[in-house]
Amino acid sequence: MVFSVIGNSDSFVPRPWPTTLFQTALIEAAKSGGETWILFRKNDEGLSNVIRNAYQHYEAMEFGKKQKDIGDPDRHIKLINIAGNELLQESKRLEECGPILLLEALKANRCDYVRVLLAKGVSFRKVDLPELYGQTVSCQDCKEKDDYLHMEWILNQIQKEQTKNLFKKYRKMTEKKEKAEEKGEQWIENVDKMQKLSKSVAEAAKELCCRILKYEKKESTETSTISDILLWAIYANRKELAEICWLRCGNHLLTGLLCSAILKKLSKKASNVKEQLLSNDLEQHSKMFEQRCIALMDSMYNENTKHAIEMMDDEAVVWGIHSSPLTFAYENFMYDIVAHTCSQKNMNKQWYNNLAPDLKPFFLSAFKEKRKFITAPLTKYLFNYMMFFIMLVMYSAFVLTSISTRYYVQDIARVFEYYVYFWGAGDFIEELISCFGCLEAQGRSHRSYYSRMKRYLYDFWNVVDLLSYILLIAALFVRHFYIDETFTIARRMFALSLLVMYLRFLEVFLIHRKLGPTLIMIKEMLKDLLGFLSIAVFLVLGVGIYYHANLWPDHQSIWSGDWTNWRIWTIIYYPYWQLYGELNLDYLDGSKPDFEEDKCTNITSEWESDTSKERCPQEDWTVQAVAAFYLLFSNLLLVNLVIAMFSYTFERVQENSEKLWRFERYTVINDYDWRIPSPINLVFLPYRFLCCPAKENCCLHKCQTRYNKKKTEMKKEKKSNDMAFRRNLQKIIALRNHNKI
User: Between the CA of residue 266 and those of 150, 273, 329, 339, 679, what are the distances in Å?
Assistant: First the structure.
């Protein structure tokens, strides 16, 4: 079959043309005809360029990274040039006028013109970037006090200095130009100043991007201006222009995730200043980018599963942010991306260390591939909790039998105690490494230590971990530096620390498919409970003060004596236990005759001099009336409100249980990729800190590179080629998804 494509019109048609539709139809028709020739005129632009791109996409999808010669029998479609000479067709004129037309089209939001000009090969001049920001994102007529209705104010709240570089320098230059024109003076633009200003604006936009997402800025080797236009389109909230630029940029998945995250953050900022319409619009734009990324991952997985899985770990620098798609999605709470099949398959490879992704064959591989089995995160996870359980047994035995020195002389008690201390020290070191990421593999996170610490403390289980360490350290100091005969305080501290340790052990079930969502529900319900307590505490205090003021009027010694005898506990005691149905009406009506049993007294000098002696309550009918209304409000309204909140949380978590569980699963897998179980980690600690084997620039990797230079270079070249292929594949699939047949 022969296709002869002779049309190559270069006429300017300012409306979107379904390029991808034509390319897909041409290749599919050619593939259906057996041996097929496509004849074209091989110009640099117009229809020839469209056909050339279609053929390149065909080669990439059909043969991957393998090169096939034109005479190869597997190459059923052949592209043949029939042009004898090149036609200029006013290309010089387009080169001169194109950048100006492109700038005006971008400012006027003329997507059809922008699409055609970019297809013609017109490039955006970086020197026009200040004008683009100054006339679209900047607020020209806003004053300093009332410019909160514009995007410039929102960006100004994030970083004043960079916002000034982004807008105000160009504004000052424009004002000088207008003044010169008013005076009739000729304004001569300084080319060097404009280039410096354009570079300053581009860097300021990237710096703002890093500040919005809390990342440290890295140097990028990217020179294309299309990414600068895309970032402008995000700040200007130009939906269609952003999509056009995204389709033409590199690293489609990571760039799309960055766009979604930036728009989501800007939406929250707009919501904080009660700009609800702008906030909703930005949030909708953010969801559009997230959906494009999910569609891209779906198509990649269907087209090439292996590369789709590996794509999630491809690192790149986009707008100064260095990350990989999976890491970035996790750090910015993109649950749908982390829960996607591509991400989960990638996690399974990491979790089982490239062994069989099932428990039975995984354990059988311990005999065949010992090194892989031992270093697998799953093995380390199981061994860590085995050591944890042994520690809990020893800790429990120590707390139950050996706190007092009378029993401490037994050697076994010393073993129990010191094993707990060594385990706690090793585990605490691992948590510090997890918090600051000082030994993690390159690319896991490139955020600042402060941002990593905030992200670490956001996790409920990490807070429980830190609480257990604080209590254990406090118990240790009380035992050895605050010695008394009975060790009562030390025993209480150790028992409380042990209680929190048992709560910590529940985290082992987080990886379980059925029990994991249950733990997530408990965690979410605790948030509801804290919200309820913040309301209840004021109600309890108010009612408690009313009870106390009328049952024990003019009580002077509120804070006298030992802290256990403070009257604040009496104030809280009755209304708090009434929440659970313990009414204590015999105390509230003042009729309980404790004074007859010498448990309380009405003599002022006695209860004032001895705070441990209880004062007898007086009768007051209003206390019972207030108690009646309080019980009605608390037991019928507040308690049922909490139950309703729990029901709503249960339904919400149940609906998204799989997604939430997969997200939490990544936390565990990522943690145990580098973690060594305690207390064994104390042995390897000097080696890990001195050599840093998880990082690429460690001494171990340097030695391997030096003695296996050829092998290392081949690995790097293969990795680079694979990443280039995946980026090209992303571009093809993104274009195909954009114009589906």
Answer: 12, 11, 17, 24, 45
Strands (E) located in 572-618: 600-601, 614-615
- Using alpha carbons only, what angle is made at residue 691 by residues 690 and 696, rounded to the nearest 5 degrees? 140
pLDDT of residue 443: 45
Tokens 């799309």 correspond to 256
Residue type, 476: L
* Best CA proximity match to 399, nearest among 275, 488, 328: 488
Query: Helical H runs in 73-225?
Result: 91-107, 111-119, 129-136, 151-158, 160-163, 169-182, 191-213
Q: Which residue has the higher pLDDT, 339 or 357?
A: 339
Location of structure tokens 């890491």: 327
* Whole-number average pLDDT of the chain: 80
Question: Which residue, 691, 674, 700, 679, is CA-closest to 375?
Answer: 674
Is residue 550's pLDDT more than 50? yes
pLDDT in tens, 370-428: 888 898 999 999 999 999 999 999 999 888 887 765 555 566 777 888 889 999 999 99
Cβ of 460: how many Cβ atoms within 10 Å?
17
Beta-carbon count within 10 A of 672 CB: 22
Whether 124 has a pLDDT exceeding 80, the answer reads yes
Residue type, 651: E
* Distance between CA atoms of residues 460 and 506, nearest Å: 12
The per-type count for the chain, helices as H runs and strands as E runs, is 35, 7
Buried b (16+ CB within 10 A) or exposed e, 523-552: bbbeebeeebeeebeeebeebbebbbebbb
Selection from 541, 622, 523 nearest residue 579 by Cα = 541
Looking at per-residue pLDDT, the higher value among 604 and 574 belongs to 574
What pLDDT score was predicted for residue 707? 65
CB 510 within 8 A of CB 668: yes
CA 247 distance to own-chain centroid = 24
Contact partners, residue 640, CB within 8 Å, separation at least 6: none
Residue pair 528/652 in contact (Cβ under 8 Å)? The answer is no
What is the DSSP track for 659-681? HHHHHHHHHHHHHHTT---TTTH
